[in-house]
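Q: My labmate handed me this sequence with no annotations at all. I'd like to see what the chain might look like in three dimensions before we decide whether it's worth expressing. Could you predict it?
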Amino acid sequence: MADDINPTPIPVVKKRILIAEDESAIRGLYIAILKANYDVQTAPDGKTALEMLADARPDLLITDCVMPHMHGLALIVQAKEHYPDLPCIAASGTWDRDYTRVDAIRAGACAIIQKPFTPSNLLALVEKYLGKPQAQ
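A: Here is what I predict for the chain of 136 residues:
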């Protein structure tokens, strides 16, 4: 009789990533790389990302450093005030010109990534903080 029972599959809940990036092409790149394994939400600037945090409840925040309305490091500082356990990754193509890596770590970033990045580098860094994605 037990063989006749088909267990209901347990839905896989994807970890959620909030990405703050002002360049739409880069936002699209993040989505293309991450969407298969993660629930990806994006914001065009730090201020919008900060407003989205409460509803989005991300498991990880990735932010560009140089953006209009609110710089990424300010976003990290404010995000950590409300969600101290939220891992934050700071991304920039202009490290040491606009910000230093030390500035990012002091703001609360758990990691930094240099733009441009490769898909494998981004995925490895995300997996470091969120673990391997569950099988679909």
